[in-house]
Amino acid sequence: MKKLLYHLLPALLLSAMPAAALADTSVDSTTIVRFFQDGRTGSTKDFVAPATEFLTLDADKLGDGKLSVHLYGWGRVDLADKSFNNNTFDGSITYAYANYRFDQANAQIRAGRFFVNEGIVNEQVDGLSARTDLPLGFGISAFGGATVHTAHMANESTDGKGDGIIGGRLNYRYKGMLELGVSGVYESDAPHLTSPANIALENEGKFGSHRLVGGDVWFSPHRVFDIMGHTSYNTETKAVAEHSYLLNVRPISNLVLTGEFNEYHNRDMFFSSILFASMVDRLNERSRSIGGRASYEFNKFFELSGDYKHYTRDIGQADRFGGDARLTLLDKTVRAGLGYHYLRSGANFALFPAPNASGSFHEARVYAMHDTKGYFSAIDAIGYFFKQNINGRPSAWEVIGSLGYHITPALALSGDISYGQNPQFVDELKGLIRLTYNMNYASKGGSK
User: Fold this and answer.
1) In 3-state terms, what secondary structure has residue 2?
2) Contacts of 409 (CB under 8 A, 6+ apart)
3) CA–CA distances in Å: residue 82 to residues 154, 216, 429, 441
4) With a cut of 50, which residues of the chain have pLDDT below it?
């Protein structure tokens, strides 16, 4: 099934590409070349220079005007020593699909590699999906195909995913003020693992197939108030995996109050992940966060916000609080901001838990950006100041400077350089060169 999709789906996309010349098309291309030396003792890399290309293509109004094609992917080549694993060349297609919109019932169908984000479903699929409105305010969507596999886990010949996946969502909407949904995802059986440690995870019931069902809600009886969220249930572990809800209130103009509640049952949430399943003992069984944020826009130049979040885990509790200020000046060509937050936590939240350890630290950031028709520049400084030293260092900080030039309205050349110190590196100096191309083409062949 999957081999068939690998050949069929790219063919569908390529068959649509000639018509793209007649479509509304946008192209975003970013090429980044990084340079660095690794001077750590024992390192075999003298000079590393990976060049990475990120490409986005969107072609709309193809054929009868209802067909569109979308693609995003990246590729890397090492110009000197290998930068990652043993491959000189690497790359991936994040998504590549064709979408057709029908005239009736807001119906559409997709084919290719795409993401599904509906209700409790968040999946990357090689296959087909379809959706349509139904009478009386109902709607339905469904998808199916092959799972998108990632890198194999250490000591395994698999990433832990099954080979096939199906799912969908049924929803009900009432007068633009209420939407309720039920959704689910069913992945074929997870592969059997081979390393003794991972076999133990299976035997202890910490790892298995990816299968979830759940419900979601959006409710906004008035424009000043809306609440949204979802709850998911793991049908393999037979327990609730997640609650996640967000409340927005706008009592007066320019003021937004936000509250959130999240609760994760780790074994049930990460049951299909080998990596997280191996960490369940350290993360314990349940984590919860409750928080709020207030943001006020004084005028078009100045915005101030404050936030607070309380974390609860079986290993202890923590609080994070602080605020941010943002400035917009000179007809929006200058943007600047500063922020401060403090994380107060107990010994078990420390990087190396111990009776006298602390996971508390201060976080401070300041930045400024300037963009004109000719050049653009930015400077960004961020620092973390620990309550107790880590590896003998009291802080981790980094300053990043950027400078670029618009060669044409669509083509820009820029470079970044950064310097910092942290518990891992006494000195860390990095740099990169970036070439960016962004262009929209209208149906008659001209640029927009």
Assistant:
1) helix
2) 373
3) 20, 46, 19, 37
4) 1-16, 19, 445-448
The Cα-based distances of 51 to 30, 63, 407 in angstroms read 11, 36, 21
Strand blocks (E) in 119-197: 121-133, 138-147, 164-174, 178-187
pLDDT single digits (tens) 299-319: 999 999 999 999 998 888 999
**Which residue reads 């994760």 in tokens?**
264
Half-sphere exposure of 177 (CA within 13 A, CB side): 7
| Predicted structure pTM score | 0.86
Which residue in this structure is represented by tokens 């996946």?
Answer: 165
What is the per-residue DSSP string for 244-266? EEEEEE--STTEEEEEEEEEEEH
Q: Calculate ∠ Cα 350-352-358, nearest 5°.
A: 35
pLDDT tens-digit series, residues 119-141: 999 999 999 999 999 999 999 99
Burial of 257 (0-12, 13-18, 19+ CB in 10 A): middle
| Cβ neighbours of residue 281 closer than 8 Å, sequence gap 6 or more | none
Instruction: Report the Cα 95 to chain-centroid distance in Å.
Output: 14
Q: What is the distance, to the nearest Å, from the Cα of residue 132 to the centroid of all Cα atoms in its chain? A: 27
Max distance between CA atoms of the chain, in angstroms, equals 70
pLDDT of residue 48: 84
C-alpha dist (Å) from residue 292 to 60, 225, 260, 338: 40, 15, 6, 20
Mind listing the pLDDT tens digit for each residue in 214-251?
999 999 999 999 999 999 999 999 999 999 999 999 99
Residue 358 one-letter amino acid: S
